Amino acid sequence: MKSKTVQEIARLYTNYFQEKGHTIVPSSSLIPKGDPTLLFTTAGMVQFKPLFTGAVELPYTRAASIQKCVRTTDLEVVGKTERHCTFFEMLGNFSFGDYFKKEAIEYALDFSLNHLEIPKDKIWVTIYLDDDEAKKIWMDAGIPEERIVRLGKKDNFWGPAGDSGACGPCSELYLDRGPEKGGPNCGNNPNCKPGCDCDRYLEYWNLVFNQFNQTVSGELLPLKQTGIDTGSGLERVAMLLQEVDSVYDTDELKTIIQKIEILSGFQYNESTKQSFRVITDHSRSVFFSLGDGIYPDRTGRGYVIRRLIRRASLFARKLGIHEPFLYKLVGTLKDLYTVRYPELKDKVKDIESILKKEEELFLHTLEVGLEELESLLSHLTANKQTLVTGKEGFRLYSTYGFPREMTKELVEDRGFSFDDKGFEEELEKDRDLSRASWKGKKIQYLTGLSASNELKTEFLGYTESKSISNVLYLFVDGKSVPSAKQGEEVVIVLDKTPFYAEGGGQIGDTGYFKKDGFQFQVQDTQKENDTFLHMGMVLKGSISVGDVVEAEIHSERRQNLANHHSGTHLLNGALRRILGNHVTQKGSIVSADYLRFDFSHPKALSPEEIIQIESDVNEAVSANIPVKTEVLDLNQAKESGALSMFDEKYGNLVRVVSMGEKSKEFCGGTHVTNTKEIGFFAIVKEGSPGAGNRRIEAICGESVVSYFLQQFQTLASKIETHNLSAKEAFGDLKEFGISKEVPSPEGLQSIFLKDGKTAVASLRKLRETLESELEEKSSSLFKAKKKLEQQKFQMNPELVDGLLQKAHKFTKGKVVTEVFPSVDAKALKDLADSLKAKEPEILCLFGTTEGESSTLVFMCNKVLNDKGIHCGDMLKETLVMLDGKGGGRPDMAQGGGKKPESVAKSLEFALSLAKTKLS
Questions:
Q1: Which residues are involved in binding Zn(2+) (predicted)?
Q2: What pLDDT digit, counting tens, does each position of 684-736 carry?
Q3: What is 710-744 written as a DSSP string?
């Protein structure tokens, strides 16, 4: 075989299928459009799902693409194997009611033989068990019968991507790498063929013959039109043509590894390869994800990206790297991948900046967190224990930022087990706690000392993010102490600080204090008179009164606080201009994630008023207004027209923050230097906290883009749910800059970049238009579908027998789980009664969905109650996953919640609970 570079293979592929009449479609975003069941784009066909199901008007009938994909299902083995990656590129050619099996097979074989130049005698194929049609086509094309292998559903029935969508039988192409790759058990074994676990035969192309549309409940319905969906991993093909044993030895990934060698000073060899491979793979996933606007976060996609960054940092540490490192690979990644993805060129600086900040955030606590983990494992070993409890795991998460999965992987690599359930319990407890526990103690810390001038703290935070400060006092358990050590919760008073103490609605800063051998995590900053209280935990070493420390705030969080605080001032001004001067501030909360503003007003805001208010604020943001702060005499400040809180007590001197003609207020908080820094502003909620007052919740910055993206993804999902095309549901949306489809992530970004001033207003109007038209178009269809589903459910005599056949069997009984869309709870109970009559020792776990709501029904015979099953208790645990409520008796329970997309997973969780009792 002739070796070919990754770029050569990609170019050959697109040229070939373009010549065969395919439209070459650019890779879609890693954020799946209109599919809430997927966190990331995981296959080439994801962007084409509506085309397969006939849900949209076809722009073309055959297409080909090179799709960037992220899959993290096997994250823990990345680096340990030769071929596992979280990021990969998928070559794919697709037909939507155009060609089918014959052409798909002929194209794949022709390209393999005449363009990839793979010898025909090295190609084997697999087909689905009963697919005689595919077998005949392969044989007619020249593949002998002895090199065609039939495999079952596990191997040769593909799809869907996510919980629903197109799927069907498939046929795969394999390359015979020779008996020497067969390993000790295969070698020249004549029975070794595709389907064997050895490395002799490697699959490099999967041809899916889409014939069915699978519903969320698992029902297979015939597609309106058959289709072809193929997938060929670009890295896998390069590995085979370059005749290397690992994808990490292919030309592009090898280039990244060589850069890591230069930066780390280590060589890529048997002892270091796991670290090199993890860093290489994760850097690609993070690079492309940040490029698509997926930023590190505490939940969802952002949580996965944060986890990848932190896992890569851990493996970089094994190469002796103790400082931010991944961001230094961005230049190499840019050189490699902007050839195929030129849109990334303009995003490189932002990717580097975000990545470096995220690495710095984690590295603050990584070293001491690892020391804490090592100490814990040593203690367990000494006591002959093997379980890391949920409480211990949660401490590593809450204090040192170790994601649960990362801790689990670290301890399991050392031969210990991890208490997942216990971790969940600790997480739930933490959600119920409040920072009030700190606040309630702050007076206690200052008892007998408040009058002392020594306790006055100089605040530097308006201009500085760091300071070198002296420790004046330490408090542990409410008592003044001379010193504190690792693991203790401490309150520290400094002579000067950059940390903002909670006040004026703005929450306190977080960050770190450091000196040689010592690190302290500031979890909150409070204030009493002129004394700043830095509340947190000693992570490493010890601290004494009189020590000198370096104090540094969490800068990214502070910037988000400034954005939302300045946004609050602009909102206050906009409310008075649009609603009237009767508007007065009644309270506010300024956090890093959102702002909340309470004000006097007698009635709810209309949609038009909300758009006006948003537009006013965004106009000020776009106007690049310098933010001016000055300290004035109280009377002088009032005469200047600055707004103040009516019941707030002020000293003789006050700080006034001005934003041109848009806002002028008394304020001691931290702010942006120019309104442009705020980015964007959007109102997400409007309501009433009490009679005569209204409450607005709003967001600023990139969160606004994410907010609208989520809104439109939900709408797109509804379109598919009701089998409506975007054109049919929404009509012509040219006035919004949208060409008859729901805007993509890229489309949203372009709207904001093109005109930030009007983007929020336009998108809000667009969303409301879409919601209104979709509701009108889909209501009759939804009612008809619900009626049909109910009839099918009630009139199906084979349903009971079918459920019994696929019941999960355990030592003490059976469990049947199933999701039924649009079926009422009574019908589920009747079905459960029928099952119980036929099988006394059975537990029924049923779910149903309708619109945005979900219902669960759990039932069993009393004989299972004696074996530990309590339907009511199980239901309460399960409903947490649906944000729901409910309960019942040991033998029957019912409840409702939200998150219909999570019903199937909630039943899997309930099944795991039952398994512990019935096994």
A1: 565, 569, 667, 671
A2: 999 988 888 999 999 998 788 778 877 776 766 666 555 554 444 444 445 55
A3: HHHHHHHHHHHHTT--HHHHH---GGGT--SSPPP
Please give the torsion angle defined by the CA atoms of residues 165, 171, 175 and 179, in that order, rounded to the nearest 10 degrees. 120
Distance CA 394, CA 425 (A): 9
- Strand 87-96 and strand 387-388: the pairing is unpaired
- Give yes or no for residue 668 having a pLDDT over 70: yes
Query: Strand runs (DSSP E) across 503-577, as ranges?
Result: 511-515, 518-528, 531-540, 542-544, 548-553
pLDDT attached to residue 451: 46
Distances (CA, A) of 532 to 352, 527, 867: 35, 5, 57
Q: Which residues have a Cβ under 8 Å from the Cβ of 342 and sit 6 or more positions away? A: none
Q: What are the backbone dihedrals phi and psi of residue 229, each rounded to the nearest 5 degrees, phi first?
A: -135, 110
Strand partners for 509:
none
Q: Which residues contact 328 (CB under 8 A, 6 or more apart)?
A: 263
Size of the chain in residues: 919
Quick: pLDDT tens for 140-198: 999 999 999 998 888 888 777 666 677 888 999 999 998 888 766 675 677 788 888 78
Which residues sit in the known binding site for Zn(2+)? Answer: 565, 569, 667, 671
CA distance 565 to 670: 7
pLDDT per position as a tens digit, 411-462: 998 899 999 889 988 877 765 454 445 555 555 555 445 444 457 899 999 9
Please state the pTM of the whole predicted model: 0.69
Question: Could you tell me if 235 and 262 are in contact, meaning their C-beta atoms sit under 8 angstroms apart?
Answer: no
Strands 496-497 and 458-459: parallel
Direct distance between the N- and C-terminal alpha carbons of the chain, in angstroms, rounded to an integer: 53
**Residue positions forming the annotated binding site:** 565, 569, 667, 671
Please report which residue ranges of 859-902 form alpha helices under DSSP H: 862-865, 871-879
- What is the three-class DSSP state of 315? helix
- Positive or negative, the CA dihedral 840, 843, 849, 852 is positive
How far apart CA 681 and CA 679 sit, in angstroms, is: 7
Q: Structure tokens of 843?
A: 């537990």
Report percent pLDDT > 70 for the chain. Answer: 87
The encoded tokens of residue 622 equal 């776009």
**Which phi-psi region, left, alpha or beta, contains residue 446 (left: φ > 0; alpha: ψ -120 to 50)?**
alpha
Tell whether the model's pLDDT for residue 75 goes beyond 80.
Answer: yes
Contacts of 572 (CB under 8 A, 6+ apart): 583, 585, 597, 599, 643, 663, 665
Taking the C-alpha atoms of residue 65 and residue 89, their distance in angstroms, rounded to an integer, is 10
Tokens of 144: 């002998």
Are 601 and 711 a contacting pair, CB within 8 Å? no
d(CA 130, CA 126): 11
Structural contact between residues 536 and 520, judged by C-beta atoms closer than 8 angstroms? yes
The single-letter code of the amino acid at 107 is Y
The answer to whether 757 touches 618, Cβ cutoff 8 Å, is: yes
pLDDT band at 806 (very low <50, low <70, confident <90, very high): confident
